[in-house]
Amino acid sequence: MTELRRFITVAHHVPGRIRLKLDPAVRSHPKAMTLAALAQKGNGAFRARLNILARSLVLEYDPDRIDPRLVEGVFTEDDPLEAAALADALSAALGLTPQA
Question: Mapping DSSP to helix (H, G, I), strand (E, B) and coil, where does residue 14 land?
């Protein structure tokens, strides 16, 4: 998902729920379908909802199991290498395969 960060803006974040706004240009990116696939995955610590019309993705997570700073950092970190490391850590915490 780190390749898609330039199309994603944090609209709102409270521990346990983050709403991401999606730039319409994301549709032309080859990895855009990973957002739709993300919405299909989930476990006890994580759930995702994609709203195509509102161009938003809501991620709900258990803040007792996943540090909210980690979740927000994936989308707001300026250093690409640090952002990738955060994404890998988040994927591991969620039990998902890391998304490059």
Answer: strand
